[in-house]
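Hey, quick one: can you model this chain's 3D structure?
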Amino acid sequence: MTNDGAETSPGPITTGVKGLDDILGGGLVAGGLYLIEGMAGAGKTILSSQIAFHRIKKGERVLYMTLIAESHSKLLAHLKPLSFYDERAISDQLLFVSGYHELMTAGLNGFLRVIATTLRAHRPALLVVDGFRSAREFSSTDLQLSQFIHELNALVTAANCTTLLLAPLSGNEPRPEHTLVDGLIELNRISVGMRRSREVEVHKLRSRNHLLGKHFFKITDHGLVAFPRIESMETDPPGLPDLKTRSGFAVPGFDEMLGGGLVRGSTTTLLGPSGIGKTLLALKFMEAGVRKGEKCVYFGFYESPGRLLGKAESVGIDLNEAMADGRFIVQWHPAIEQAIDELADQLLNTVVNVKASRLVIDGVEAFRDSALRSDRIGLFLNALTHRLREAGVTTLMTEELPLWAESIQSNPLRASAMTENIVLMRYVEAGARMQRLISVIKLRESAHDPSIRALTIDSSGLRVTDSFVGVSGLLSGQSVAVVTAPPGHSQ
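Sure thing. Here's the predicted structure for all 491 residues.
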């Protein structure tokens, strides 16, 4: 039962903030005392208000006590544009009380008496104290502040009232309240070049197996939305792969190189320089899937849906009908600032919600470009590919290579290291012409043809052929043309 008599489950106190409960290990503990710190403008007031209105929807009563000079009407005016705001709850389930005057006139003891009186009178399930900095400033010694925190903790625990204290960042210096509260949550902003990002970190949380480290969040019209770092979350061990079911490309000659196609649920990196045909080959992979009635998702960064469909049509790939009936879903992310955790969240949600069996990530290097902290990209890609395997989707990722093979090793960190299969596409000069070549470098769970074959792209489609001018030293960057002789003839 709540303090107001409403039915509740014995589980954690959820915040209603997307992603935050996952970071908190499920939510807060009833009757716990939590300190939320952050610099000015970090989102402390929005976060606490969002939690308050969520608990109101659960049938609880909330007491919002301010220790700042800002009027309650001004505070509500700032909250009104947000979707979680519910004016009907004001003065009924959401009560506003100012403790500023009592703190100024009677100090911490007077403020504590106001809290005790208000708790007895209204019996809220959630108490928010906005402006805890004032209480810090009115404590003459650390011992006095510690005594106040002790008494406040005992008071809210006895009333089974979950309490949030909002305060500005105290820097790296530990404060007495840090050790006395049940949880310490920090909201912060970071700068990298001209970009700024918001991060949340749970430094301490009693009775909860919370996620460690920093996690990206943003403030939207719906309030805070948090995105836990994908590499910080536990995942299930992979099951046995289905080696019998294959996902082909329907490209003459290429499926034979793959031993019939890609193993269902595997991840493949398609490597090649710009213009080599990576996107077109990926679209053939999509077309082969939709023709079988599969749900296919294209997740790209560089080409709009209209340009993508036009590009496909130029080589005889028709995906218009499949897009119209929902078999082919395009998620386009133009060049705007987005965090890789947000991109991963959108990608995984789409794959799971539509029950996709095939996925193309066209331009996986865009994740690297979006990462504010480049040192985590390896773990991020590893975790992302693991989650995609868990979802059972067969994934094809395209990755850009330099035009000439000599520069292949210029970037040692590549998505190909995280995938079971690698397909390499290269240019070679042959007879004063540029020719496309394709080869299967790795196919972990299946036998494959390792030969280097010619890839032809024209208005009639894509074809992989056996006959071509051979090349020695293609991967080393020391290419030398070798004319292949017919069987039975010596060179």
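One thing worth noting: The longest helix spans residues 100-122.
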